[in-house]
Write a structure and sequence with these properties.
The complex is a heterodimer of chains A (about 450) and B (about 425). With about 450 residues, chain A is an alpha/beta fold. Chain A contains 17 helices and 19 strands. The chains are: A alpha/beta (about 450), B alpha/beta (about 425). The structure holds flavin-adenine dinucleotide (FAD), flavin mononucleotide and iron/sulfur cluster (3 copies).
């Protein structure tokens, strides 16, 4: 082996191939049929179940679990996918500990919820392995809708529109579909190229045409889309990243770029990573960048978050995942400067405190050695037409996901109601499709303007 | 420390746990190991008449009902009586009995319904030194088609007749094993008593089909595409067995007739329940077939532990203690008024009580803001369904309304007088009596 975990600088091949393969295998291996039975039996089939309310796509969880328990996993899969066409991905990536499983009454009862996520995966895997999707298109309506962005929001919207018989054209900036399912989600949550397999399966419904390498604002304008289609849905996510002034030495980059490289790599042994990695931020992106750096063979990885642990956006479960992989977590420290001769060598931080008047530096500083620094301090909306109203930095929408323009809807991360969750993007894409359908077919729905 | 030594029909064994006549007691090898494991006695696998032994099927002989995690809730079998030569069994019985004088060996028998057949086998059994015999009038499959087993057990006159033959031709205790596949268990029990039986044992297996293969459309277990009914045993049959034991215990004609309780005994608690309903000891088959002979260790320690807690030094002190409390519906106190009470502290807000009461009971549970479930006393009939479906033990309990309080459902003041249906004004018979 050319390199080890102690090789200085940013290099590839710190770990043997088989170790890498093991490190990046399924985080939660699939349940086998017997395990699924046992897990399903724990569900109480609650009345007006709180887990359903907690799911942004409102999957009928007790029903699908009972369908698993009674040996009809395909029916279970259908129950899930009727509400959430990316139910397979959501089963893998949802932070269930803050969604359905947090609300599960068995969490309250004994601190051990029904394993809803893994059961959902069992059912959706069974259905997808079984063959084509169980949904088909209604008679053609002759209407056409432009969907911008082939991420979870755009795909969910496109699928629901196709089901209703509309023709959909997706305009996607990149040359692959999936959005962050393909470029963002941690590798060990979606192994074996599941993201693309799921999209192929989804697109099988027909009536969805994807144009790759077509960016709104660069290759096509909103006016052109409005002219060519009866309605427009924007699901462009937050393609930009927040930057940190003074942090521009070599070796410093946005965490999402590193993660995208990692997700697109065919051979992780060729992917370089630092010996000492520092990740600045406190969300899921920070955790994913840190954990995957460690799994690639970085000797030390430290996440530094400027607020207290209790304020960290990454769930306690994610924090524990990081810690159990050997990532150091530091709280109440903000970045001051990066130094090094050409490439970064160390980062200076200042401790912070919040005494009720906002977060302030305490004056006390410390340095961390770093060959590589990942900035995970937030993604931002970029490329959305200026004439759409904003709420904060994101697109303003009404409760039916309509923007300030009557023929334009938006959902997912680009919308002010997005929650930076795959499942929320799916829910909003689906609901926007229903609203568009109503509007196109003249079934009421408020017309803005 | 409680003493589990139990004497049944004058046979004293170190504990009341016997293995029922079935595969666990099929041969010397098993029975020796069972005694080493601690079983108090065995009823040897049923012997048939001399000559060519019966043959069993060569395909699967068991079907099953499972709970989650494949917990075996019931077993169903189409096995016949022993398929080993009579003399081999008798020799083995004699050898084992000699080596284990403190354990019971009862020999289960099933021969054709003629006096000569019984007269032929009884002296040979007596020679083994076994402690008694059990007449298998229970097997519901195979043997019954040949006029034995439950074919005898379903006709009280035959039971009485065969029992009498045995009493006349055998000196030691005669136990009659009853089939549950009848409408009223008291008739065969009375017949056994009339024939002179020293005891009855019950239940044998319940005629059953455990499942149907929906690909082949064949009952399980399938033998070359066909199935026949088998006999059900294990935890699922316990409630039926308990009732039958209780019926015999409290029947005026059979009261006092010793009973060996069988059917789904799986833990010490099951055994204690059978004994509380009047069984002098219990027999176990499926629990041993599921978990091996070692289960008896839990039964022994559990029963002893419970007896210590309750202050019973010997098993006689609690045998039959529940019998006086088994009564007929018409004598139940109608002035015993209770209401469901939900403990909000332990409630986990699953809503099962609500769904059950709202959809299928008396619409007596409110679901309030924030998933708070409360009982509406004005509708609650105290049926207990919510208690039964609630996943949290003791979360819902039944509270008795004290005398003097008004039941908001009926508007009547609760009385602490005892009043049952025989005295109720709506009962025409009661009115006629006035
Ligand atoms: C590193 C990371 C890890 C994450 N992990 C999880 C997780 O474990 N679980 C979870 O629930 N969520 C996770 N998230 C969040 C989740 O991925 C997003 O909330 C979700 O993908 C949002 O979906 P979307 O469709 O709104 O946007 P995106 O997934 O961002 O998709 C937007 C699509 O639009 C395209 N696009 C952008 N601009 C244009 C344009 N101008 N013209 C045309 N196309 C354009 C993009 O190329 C992309 O394909 C993670 C996010 C990141 C960054
Ligand atoms: C495979 C099998 C074979 C049995 N064979 C006999 C038998 O030969 N004679 C008999 O009296 N009962 C026989 N039984 C019935 C048992 O003795 C017992 O009455 C019944 O299984 C109920 O007890 P349990 O619930 O503890 O199993 C058999 C039961 C099983 C499962
Ligand atoms: S809350 Fe938990 S137990 Fe209740 S239905 Fe949902 S998964 Fe089942
Ligand atoms: S006892 Fe019966 S009637 Fe009363 S609340 Fe419970 S389920 Fe309803
Ligand atoms: S069934 Fe029990 S735990 Fe569930 S809501 Fe009712 S009282 Fe609460």
């Amino acid at each position: 082996m050319a390199h080890t975990i102690r090789t200085p600088g940013i290099v590839a091949g710190r770990l043997e191939k088989d170790v890498l393969a093991e490190n990046f295998s399924d985080l939660h291996p699939p349940l086998d049929a017997h395990e699924a039975h046992v897990a399903a039996d724990r569900c109480y089939f609650c009345h007006d179940a709180p887990c359903i309310t907690a799911c942004p796509t409102e999957i009928d969880i007790p029903l699908f679990i009972r369908q698993i328990a009674t040996d009809t996993p395909l029916a279970a899969g259908k129950t899930i996918l009727e509400q959430n066409i990316l139910g397979g991905m959501c089963a893998r990536v949802c932070p269930t500990e803050t969604l359905c499983e947090e609300a599960c009454v068995r969490e309250l009862a004994e601190g051990k919820p029904v394993e809803i996520g893994r059961l959902q995966r069992f059912a959706t895997d069974a259905l997808m392995a079984h063959g084509p999707q169980p949904f088909s298109r209604a008679a053609a309506t002759g209407k056409s809708v432009a969907v911008v962005g082939a991420g979870p929001a755009g795909l969910a919207c496109a699928h629901r529109l196709a089901m209703h018989g509309h023709d959909v054209t997706i305009y996607e900036k990149r040359d692959k579909p999936g959005g962050l399912n393909e470029y963002g989600i941690a590798s060990y949550k979606t192994v074996n190229d599941f993201a693309q397999a799921e999209i192929d399966w989804l697109l099988d419904i027909g009536g969805i045409d994807i144009r790759y390498g077509r960016a709104l604002g660069r290759d096509v304008t909103l006016e052109q889309l409005s002219d060519a289609h009866d309605a427009v849905f924007l699901g462009i996510g937050k393609p930009g990243v927040n930057r940190l002034g003074g942090f521009d030495l070599d070796g410093i980059r946005p965490a999402v770029d590193f993660i995208a490289d990692l997700r697109q790599s065919d051979d992780l042994a060729t992917l370089p990573v630092g010996r000492h990695v520092v990740v600045i931020g406190g969300g899921m992106t920070a955790v994913d960048a840190a954990v995957q750096s460690k799994l690639l063979g970085a000797e030390s990885v430290t996440i530094v978050y400027r607020r207290a642990q209790a304020d960290m956006p990454a769930s306690r479960y994610e924090q524990d995942l990081a810690a159990s992989n050997g990532v150091n977590l530091m709280f109440n420290a903000q970045p001051v400067s990066a130094s090094g001769a050409g490439a970064v060598e160390s980062v200076t931080f200042e401790y912070t405190a919040d005494n009720g008047t906002g977060l302030k530096g305490t004056g006390e500083k410390f340095d961390l050695p770093a060959d590589q620094v990942f900035l995970a301090i937030g993604q931002v909306l970029e490329g959305a037409p200026e004439d759409l109203s904003r709420e904060g930095a994101a697109l303003a929408t009404d409760p039916h996901h309509r923007t300030s323009l009557a023929n334009v809807w938006a959902g997912g991360d680009c919308s002010a109601t997005g929650e930076d969750l795959t499942v929320t993007a799916v829910a909003q894409g689906r609901d926007a499709a229903e609203a568009i359908h109503k509007s196109l077919m003249g079934e009421g729905g408020p017309t803005n303007g | 420390m409680a003493d589990l030594t139990t004497t049944f029909l004058g046979i004293t064994t170190p504990n009341p746990f016997w293995l029922a006549s079935a595969p666990p007691t099929d041969k010397e090898y098993n029975v020796r190991r069972a005694f080493e494991a601690g079983w108090g006695g065995v009823v040897w696998k049923t012997l048939g008449e001399d000559g060519s032994p019966v043959v069993n099927v060569n395909g699967p002989r068991y079907g099953a009902v499972w709970g989650a995690d494949r917990r075996l809730l019931a077993l169903n079998n189409i096995e016949l009586i022993t398929d080993r030569p009579l003399q081999t069994n008798l020799d083995e019985i004699a050898r084992v009995k000699k080596d284990y004088p403190d354990r019971a060996i009862i020999v289960s028998l099933m021969v054709p319904c003629t006096e000569e057949s019984w007269k032929a086998i009884l002296p040979r059994v007596a020679e083994t030194g076994a402690d008694g015999i059990e007449l298998n009038f229970g097997c519901p499959h195979g043997m019954s088609e040949r006029g034995m087993g439950s074919a005898v057990g379903q006709v009280p006159e035959y039971i009485e007749m065969v029992t009498r033959w045995c009493k006349e031709n055998y000196d030691k205790p005669v136990i009659v094993k009853l089939t549950p596949n009848i409408t009223d268990i008291r008739y065969p029990a009375r017949a056994a008593k009339a024939g002179g039986a020293d005891a009855v044992s019950l239940i044998n297996t319940v005629s059953s089909i455990t499942s149907v293969d929906l690909d082949d459309f064949c009952p399980e277990p399938a033998i070359d595409g066909k199935g026949s009914h088998g006999g059900l045993c294990g935890p699922a049959v316990k409630p039926m067995a308990l009732n039958m034991v209780a019926e015999i215990s409290r029947d005026a004609e059979t009261a006092g007739l010793p009973i060996s309780g069988i059917g789904g005994v799986t833990t010490w608690r099951d055994a204690a329940e059978f004994m509380a309903l009047g069984a002098g000891n219990v027999q176990v088959c499926t629990a041993a077939m599921t978990y091996g002979f070692k289960v008896v260790q839990e039964m022994i320690s559990g029963l002893g532990d419970w007896m210590d807690r309750k202050g019973y030094a010997r098993t006689e002190e609690f045998i039959g203690k529940a019998v006086p409390n088994v009564t007929d519906w018409q004598y139940l106190n109608l002035n015993f008024v209770t209401k469901a009470r939900i403990d909000q502290e332990s409630c986990i807000k699953c809503g099962r009580c609500y769904a059950a009461c709202e959809d299928t009971s008396h619409q007596a549970i409110w679901m309030k803001e924030g998933r708070v479930f409360e009982v509406n006393d004005a509708e609650c009939v105290a049926c207990n369904l919510c208690v039964n479906v609630c996943p949290v033990e003791d979360c819902i309990t039944m509270e008795r309304l004290p005398a003097g309080q008004t039941d908001p459902r009926t508007g009547q003041v609760v009385s602490d007088d005892y009043a049952n249906w025989t005295m109720h004004p709506n009962n025409p018979a009661a009115q006629a009596a006035e």
